[in-house]
Amino acid sequence: MADNSFRDLCSGPQRDRRNQWRIMLWTFLWACSFVAVTLGIKRQWLPFGGALTGVIATSLLGLATVHAYRRFLNETDELRRKIEVEALALAFGIGAFGGLSYWLLELSGAVPATGFVWIFLVMIVAHPVAVLIGLRRYS
Question: For the chain, what are the domain ranges?
Answer without folding.
Answer: 1-76, 77-139
